[in-house]
From TrEMBL:
Residues 328-337 have a biased composition (Basic and acidic residues). It is a multi-pass membrane protein. It comes from Streptomyces hyaluromycini. It is found in: Cell membrane. This is MASE1 domain-containing protein. It comes from the Bacteria. The lineage of its organism: Bacteria, Bacillati, Actinomycetota, Actinomycetes, Kitasatosporales.
């Protein structure tokens, strides 16, 4: 017995270390992917969609608050990969850790469910996890860079807005996808693979055309998003939203299609409005559809249980379920007849 307890005590630090390293690796990899597409606003370089914030919040929601050292470690790896760190690195690490942690605490406070099966969960993720909490991370990061002399104070608000929206888009687009992948128990049934392949084929053709066409046809993405939400709910809609957001971000950084001949600020505003409306539509529409599906299923189960109860009561009250009248009479009376 003592040996088992000792093995468990030794296993816990090992599991914690491996989990911390895994979270740090995922955070660093997501950050490097996000840095592949960058925009410049008032001389400051930022990522329109910073996926590391989405990865950090998803890890907190899945593994709990104890994985925050992995977020800090991943942010440190990312800072070191960009060059020799200075005193401002401490503020960057603080901001990148504080934002997701505050988002996690606020979501836990309102009873958030990671399966996003209710409309209130989608609204909480949007307004608390993305819009409110990322004010903290972006504010700390931008103030740190200003104090370090790397940013001009006269352009604080445009830079902060671009930083804040990039962090918020990471939560809105990346976090739901990771939560869906974690909650998924298996692939779709064989009967639905044809529709899955059809949806993927249409998305592979329609999304690049909509984002890279000079006709500014970004609106063509929304019917595809509605189809995915109606048929595959959160998994389909968020994967389509992620693909459309990445494709639009590439077009924006290249300055082609719907983002051609725009100023840097105009590119940033148009891209983030598209990404924001895309994520909100996918998240809230799929949450409403899932909630209605769960409500119908609950009503159907309640009706089935009620029918079983009525059938049971009817069986007891039927003539076949009752004893014959003479069987219920006293023996003495039957003998006198």
């Amino acid at each position: 017995m003592a040996g088992v307890v000792g093995n468990q005590e030794l296993r816990r630090p090992a599991v914690l270390a491996l989990r911390t390293l895994a979270v740090a690796t995922c955070y660093y990899a997501a950050g490097r992917l996000g840095l592949l597409c960058r925009l410049t606003v008032e001389g400051a370089v930022f990522t329109p969609v910073y996926p590391s914030t989405g990865v950090a919040l998803a890890c907190l929601l899945v593994f709990g608050l104890g994985c925050w050292p992995g977020i800090t470690l991943g942010a440190l790896f990312l800072v070191l990969s960009l060059g020799a760190p200075g005193p401002d690195a401490v503020g960057i690490l603080l901001g990148n850790t504080a934002g997701p942690v505050c988002a996690y605490l606020m979501l836990r406070r309102v009873g958030f469910r990671p399966d996003l099966s209710r409309l209130r969960d989608g609204l909480a993720l949007v307004f608390l996890g993305a819009l409110a909490a990322m004010v903290i991370s972006s504010g700390i990061d931008v103030v740190t860079l200003i104090l370090a002399g790397k940013l001009d104070t006269t352009h604080f608000w445009p830079i902060w807005l671009a930083w804040w929206v990039g962090d918020a888009m990471g939560v809105l687009i990346v976090t739901p996808v990771l939560l869906v992948l974690f909650e998924t128990r298996g692939p779709p049934s064989l009967a639905r693979w044809k529709e899955v392949l059809a949806l993927a084929a249409v998305a592979a053709v329609l999304v690049p055309v909509a984002t890279h066409s000079s006709l500014s046809a970004l609106f063509l993405v929304y019917p595809l998003l509605i189809w995915a939400a109606l048929r595959f709910r959160l998994a389909g809609s968020m994967l389509c939203a992620l693909f459309a957001s990445v494709t639009a971000t590439v077009a924006a950084t290249d300055g082609v299609g719907a983002f051609a001949r725009l100023s840097p600020v105009g590119v940033m505003l148009k891209l983030q409005l598209f990404n924001g409306s895309l994520a909100l539509t996918a998240l809230l529409l799929s949450a409403v559809i899932t909630e209605q599906h769960n409500t119908r299923r609950s009503v159907a189960e309640a009706c089935k249980e009620l029918a079983e109860v009525l059938e049971h009561l009817t069986a007891h009250d039927s003539p076949a379920g009752r004893a014959p009248p003479e069987a219920a009479e006293p023996r003495s009376e039957r003998g006198t007849r």
